[in-house]
Design goal:
single chain; alpha/beta; 6-stranded parallel sheet; 4-stranded mixed sheet; 16 strands
Length: 640
């Protein structure tokens, strides 16, 4: 009796479990069938399977219920169980399914389009070029090497879109960075397709947005630098500087930067090796045309030269009675005043020396150096000669010229007034370099939409020091003057074209009649231009972005270009397909290997395996010294 009761209870539980899981399983069937229907549409279609479609399909997926073995005993639900099992297997391998489908699609499409590709280029495309053309991702970056056919790939891509995929030419926007490149691409596309494709510089596109959509009718300033610099742009800042140097504080900081910080970005304590300091010194001649052992000695020599103080460098020490000591040569001798100057390489008030100095025996480098310094001080005192001391840490704190001037004045040496010094500096090549730096920097910060407050915050946060503080102080009134000039005259420059277009798109969210944005020389994209492209894509998510470039050829950092937008493409633009063009038609393998090894020593660059189609030519590379012969003939100037 107990046996029959137990069996009945188990049967009831058995049937209850079956009905429960059967009901749960039935709920899953409809979405699973939708999944397979969508998958079939994709895999039987004639388009590339994008990440976007892949993610949409995954979003429609469900977590199928657990199906206990009991359900498989009853044939009434067998078809549902099989469908669920198939779904589970398919979902697990969905990534692989997409990969296999796209690989097959690219191969078949390349065969079908072979004649089209041949017509565009005159020569067959490489396998990777064909992939770059056919892949139709929402975000696609082509990382290319020099001479691998970047622009040819982009042009072929545009022809493929219009002739194979049927994209309306008016809904394609091709962008490049120079007017010459734009004109060449436009003419090439017109000759191939017979159609007008929109090809612009990014600045020109921004100008079109603010004029056609935003209704801004401002004129373009003649002083605006479109590319590297502009003589009018530079002349404007020369005038602005002349207005500001009447302020003695501004004048002093301008002279300080020009004489100290511009030629020598590093202070002595920032060099890790003596060879680094030697190379830095050899790059810069003093105003008197002579070569000195350290950059800080050049600063002192320039100061004396500009103030008309006669001096000799490393003259053998001579006492007041004429006794000469050949083994002791102080740094400077002011012969009209009988004053000696020693510049000591102490990097702080504690008496520490640069890290590349060496000790001796049990004595540290600092102990040994300070012993030598103390001997010199006592020696001058014993012989009744006047010695002025200067120190490396004064350069770091921005007090070297001020303290040197005080010491000289206190000993009766008459110095020229700051205005006279400034006039003499304007005649130097350093002044021209300063104008170029100012023009470049103002272009950069305007391109990046940075304010002076932003710069000061960065300096403070990163503890960048005196050099940067002084430069921002010099820039501030010049930037204010330039922006006021634009405002008063209702003008815009090339940074405004991009920034105002970006602001308009973010605020007004216009529906742009664009399906594809294709960017040539993507490595030259500036921060401001990146903001514009991102604003367009965020406001118009259906637009596809295709970029082709070579991060090894990024040379426009001065204009706000940040190569990380290419090396970290997905961080800026989201999930992307990355295609590499690594077959060069331009130079031999020997040159490819040498240049690759050199560039890839920088861990920030994208690694590439460049191979050449050209026959190897021995002797393709010749090493040439970049240092003039006279660097090797001066005492203390030999290279390590």
């Amino acid at each position: 009796m107990i046996y029959y009761i137990s069996a009945l209870i188990l049967s009831i539980l058995y049937i209850g479990v079956w009905f429960y899981f059967s009901k749960q399983t039935s709920k899953s069937i409809a979405p699973i069938r939708v999944f397979f229907s969508e998958l079939e549409k994709i895999t039987q279609g004639l388009r590339y399977w994008t990440f976007h479609s892949f993610n949409e399909l995954k979003a429609k997926s469900i977590d199928p219920p657990w199906t206990p073995p009991i359900l498989k005993i009853f044939p009434v639900k067998r078809i549902n169980i099989d469908l669920i099992d198939r779904y589970k297997a398919e979902f697990v391998t969905l990534d692989q399914t997409r990969s296999v489908f796209n690989k097959t699609f690219i191969h078949n499409e390349a065969v079908i389009c072979a004649s089209l590709f041949q017509r565009v280029n005159g020569l067959p495309l490489t396998e990777k070029q064909r992939e770059a053309v056919i892949i139709d991702e929402f975000r696609h970056l082509v990382v290319a090497g020099a001479g691998t056919g970047k622009t040819s790939t982009l042009v072929t891509k545009i022809v493929y879109l219009t002739e194979r995929l049927g994209v309306n030419p008016s809904r394609i926007l091709a962008l490049s960075f120079t007017k010459v490149a734009v004109d060449e691409m436009r003419q090439r596309l017109k000759a191939i397709t017979g159609k007008e494709i929109t090809v612009r510089t990014i600045s020109s596109f921004g100008l079109n947005v603010i004029r056609e959509l935003a209704g801004n009718i401002s004129k373009v300033s003649e002083k605006a630098p479109e590319q590297r610099d502009s003589s009018e742009f530079g002349k404007f800042f020369e005038t602005e500087i002349s207005k500001n140097v009447s302020d003695l504080v501004y004048q002093g900081e301008f002279v300080e930067f020009l004489m100290v910080h511009l030629p020598f970005p590093k202070t002595t304590d920032e060099y890790r090796k003596e060879s680094e300091q030697i190379r830095a010194t050899q790059k810069e001649l003093a105003l008197d045309g002579n070569i000195y052992r350290s950059n800080e000695e050049i600063i002192i020599a320039n100061f004396l030269y500009l103030h008309g103080v006669n001096y000799e460098y490393e003259k053998c020490y001579t006492t007041n009675d004429g006794t000469e000591y050949e083994n002791y040569k102080p740094d400077f001798y002011l012969k009209d005043y009988g004053i000696w100057i020693e510049h000591f390489a102490l990097i702080n008030e504690r008496g520490d020396v640069p890290p590349f100095f060496s000790g001796q025996g049990r004595k540290s480098a600092s102990q040994l150096y300070n012993e030598q310094r103390n001997w010199k001080l006592k020696f001058h005192k014993a012989n009744g000669t006047l010695l002025i001391q200067t120190f490396s840490f004064q350069v770091k704190y921005g007090t070297l010229l001020k303290e040197l001037g005080k010491s000289l004045s206190s000993h009766g040496i008459k110095l020229k007034n700051p205005e006279e010094v400034f006039i003499r500096l304007k005649e130097s090549s350093s002044f021209k370099n300063m104008i170029t730096l100012i023009s470049t920097f103002i272009t950069l910060i305007r391109s990046c939409s940075l304010s002076v407050d932003d710069l000061r915050e960065k300096i403070s946060k990163n503890k960048l020091g005196r050099r940067y503080e002084v430069f921002v102080n010099l820039i501030e009134p010049l930037l204010i003057g330039y922006e006021e000039y634009l405002r008063i005259n209702n003008l815009i420059d090339f940074s405004d074209m991009v920034n105002k277009a970006t602001d308009f798109i973010i605020e007004e969210k216009p529906d742009l009649a664009i399906d594809y944005i294709l960017i040539d020389e993507f490595q030259d994209l500036s921060v401001g231009q990146m903001r514009l492209i991102k604003a367009i894509l965020q406001n118009n998510p259906s637009i596809k972005l295709f970029g082709v470039g070579d991060d090894w050829q990024s040379i426009y950092r001065f204009a706000g270009v940040d190569v990380s937008m290419m090396t970290n493409f997905e961080n800026y633009f989201g999930k992307a397909e990355i295609t590499r063009l690594e077959t060069t038609f331009r130079f031999s393998q020997e040159i490819a290997d040498a240049s690759s090894n050199f560039v890839m020593a920088n861990p920030s660059q994208i690694k590439k395996n460049i191979t050449s189609t050209k026959t190897q030519i021995n002797g393709s590379i010749k090493l040439v010294s970049v240092y003039p012969d006279y660097f090797y003939s001066k005492p203390g100037s030999s290279l390590p």
